[in-house]
Specification:
Belongs to the class-I aminoacyl-tRNA synthetase family. This is Probable cysteine--tRNA ligase, mitochondrial. Its EC number is 6.1.1.16. InterPro entries: Cys-tRNA-ligase, Cys-tRNA/MSH_ligase, Rossmann-like_a/b/a_fold, tRNA-synt_1_cat_dom, tRNAsynth_Ia_anticodon-bd. With 581 residues, the chain is α/β, with parallel strands linked by helices. It is 40% helix and 19% strand. A five-stranded parallel sheet has the order 7-6-5-12-13, with helices on both faces. It has a four-stranded antiparallel sheet with strand order 8-9-10-11, with helices on one face. The radius of gyration is 31 Å and the shape is elongated.
Length: 581
């Protein structure tokens, strides 16, 4: 005799420490669950402020829908988990601007944006961020694409995994402490599911599927989002509740599969993240990041199954979500399925990694962001202003740029105020737009005093510009914007630098000779003073013209020479790089 599924469920719940309560309201019998375990006790959706090390940073927590003090379990150590790519296609800017892929719509959690946040925590607030990222290398999309291309899912996944890593390196995204593939953790996933079943929070169907039982955790399901009107994952016919989600999927013909106590199959989407995060960080996680579209169902389900596994009240303390990247004029987020994306490779043909980082810095990480030529032009212009200031400040320090006496005290005060305001802005939910505004204001005041003049009277003040230059470079480096453009280059580039240096030096000597005035200018016989301005000697004018032509001809080739009186500076600009003397 086969017992009804509902009766079996009630028995399992009673054996797991749950009490079933029936109530009648308006003639309708309602069944609810009470638990003797911590998992369902007390105020079921109340966020518990962690005890531990207060970083001095406030961050917006999706669990509370407000800014909260960022408190870490261990002093100056942040455990951080982010979902990684589902590797079946090229990475696009939506990925670059985000850090988590979903199975259906691809990820939305800024690789660059959250890379910036991690850099801020590490460099400004001296937090050791331990970042773990999963590589989803088995999934419906991967299986479908492998069938279309007639290659194995493993080969397809490995190809796109390496391409993804190269793209992230090109965008200067720091790699996590470790990448962990789903297929390398199947035994751990099976064990994780078995424990959830044993704790009374999942069930096996006659078809060999395993589902999480959302009713078993009562009102705790829905910590991140209001579930009113949400019916859960559709398509399966063997679920008890529409909100229940797959932990293990029974195998289908021609699909990769693994052995399990429930038959051959493969992991569901959400279980991989809970298993891998728990295998590294245990029962408590400081920070989980992702795109806002992953809050439900992915992150909601991660919370449910992780707390069911660990039998804890709060698994992840902070959930940080980034806004979508949109193509200008489109209300849809950038994604592969909508075919409205720009690949990272194509993007880097027109813009640089530095420019994309400025583009991200100009908006809050939680805000939606519009990608367009106009928005990229704004980022490029901002970066150009910063780079020009650094170049001019360096030229002033080297004595190549002559200016009137500097109001040094004002600049020292501005620098101190900027350092204070930047730290304050970054401690307020990583406010990068306000930080960039503060840096640009400092640069404006510096530029106001870096006005070239032909004649200099009084002392020079290179030290204050050295301090300003160092700070601007440092804070940009914190954000991953490399104003010094330090990276591996071909051996020939060093030769090129030396050749350009010698050519510009030779041109400067020729130009200095050409600009020398007549040995004896005509004088007024009565006063003895010069009756006209000094001019270069006529036979040297062709040399001066040749020097100007040489400078103008090199500019389209990427070599830019700037004349500052009788001295000259130069820089080489190529797509994606700038090198200066």
């Amino acid at each position: 005799m086969r017992l009804p599924l509902a009766l079996i469920a009630n028995v399992r719940l009673l054996n797991s420490g749950f009490r079933i309560r029936h109530s009648i309201h308006n003639g309708v019998t309602k069944t609810s669950l009470l638990s003797s375990h911590n998992i369902c006790s007390g105020a079921e959706r109340t966020w518990i402020k962690p005890a531990g090390f207060d970083t001095g940073v406030k961050t917006y927590n999706s669990l509370t829908k407000q800014k909260e003090p960022l408190v870490l379990a261990q002093e100056r150590i942040a455990t951080w988990y982010s979902c990684g790519p589902t590797v079946y296609d090229h990475a696009h800017l939506g990925h670059a601007c985000t850090v988590c892929y979903s199975v259906i719509l691809v990820l939305r959690d800024s690789y660059v944006r959250f890379d910036i946040l991690q850099r801020i925590l590490s460099r400004i607030f001296e937090i050791n961020v331990i970042h773990v990222m999963v590589i989803t290398d088995i999934d419906d999309k991967i299986i479908q694409r492998s069938l279309e291309q007639n290659i194995s899912p493993t080969v397809l996944a490995r190809m796109h995994e390496e391409e993804f890593k190269r793209d992230m390196q090109a965008l200067r995204v720091l790699p996590p402490a470790v990448y962990m593939r789903v297929t390398d953790n199947i035994p751990q996933i099976v064990a994780f599911i078995k424990r959830i079943i044993g704790n009374g929070h999942a069930y096996v169907t006659s078809q060999g599927n395993v589902y999480f039982d959302t009713q078993s955790i009562g009102n705790r399901y829905g910590k991140l989002v209001n579930l009113g009107g949400i019916v859960g994952e559709l398509g399966a016919q063997d679920k008890r509740d529409p909100r229940d989600f797959a932990l293990w999927k029974a195998s289908k013909p021609h699909e990769p599969h693994w052995e399990s106590p429930w038959g051959q199959g493969r992991p569901g989407w959400h279980i991989e993240c809970s298993t891998i995060a728990s295998s590294v960080f245990g029962s408590q996680l400081d920070i989980h990041s992702g795109g806002i579209d992953l809050a439900f169902p992915h992150h909601e389900n991660e919370i449910a199954q992780s707390e069911a596994y660990h039998q804890c009240e709060q698994w992840g303390n902070y959930f940080l979500h980034s806004g979508h990247l949109h193509l200008k004029g489109s209300v849809e987020k950038m994604s592969k399925s909508l075919k409205n994306y720009v690949t990272i490779k194509d993007f880097l043909k027109s813009y640089t990694a530095n420019e994309f980082r400025l583009f991200c810095l100009l908006t809050r990480y939680r805000s939606a962001i519009d990608y367009s030529d106009a928005s990229m032009s704004e980022a490029r212009s901002t970066l150009s202003t910063i780079s020009a200031f650094c170049h001019n400040a360096q030229a002033y320090m080297q004595g190549h740029l002559q200016c009137q006496p500097i109001e040094e005290g004002i600049l020292w005060e501005r620098l101190s105020a900027t350092q204070s305001s930047v730290r304050k802005a970054l401690a307020d939910d990583f406010d990068t737009p306000k930080t960039v505004d503060a840096i640009m204001s400092l640069i404006h005041h510096g530029n106001c005093q870096l006005q070239p003049t032909a004649k200099v009277d009084g002392p020079r003040s290179p030290a204050v510009f050295g301090a300003m230059l160092s700070y601007v470079r440092e804070i940009m480096d914190v954000f991953g914007v490399d104003l010094l453009d330090r990276k591996e280059v071909h051996d020939s580039s060093g030769v090129l630098n030396n050749v350009v240096e010698e050519l510009v030096h030779f041109r400067s000597e020729v130009r200095k000779f050409a600009l020398s005035v007549e040995d004896q200018a005509p004088q007024d016989p009565l006063t003895g003073s010069e009756i006209q301005k000094r001019h270069p000697q006529p036979d040297r004018v062709p040399l001066l013209n040749a020097c100007d032509a040489f400078r103008n001809n090199l500019a389209p080739l990427g070599v830019h020479i700037k004349d500052r009186g009788t001295n000259s500076t130069w820089e080489i600009t190529r797509r994606g790089e700038t090198r200066k003397n």
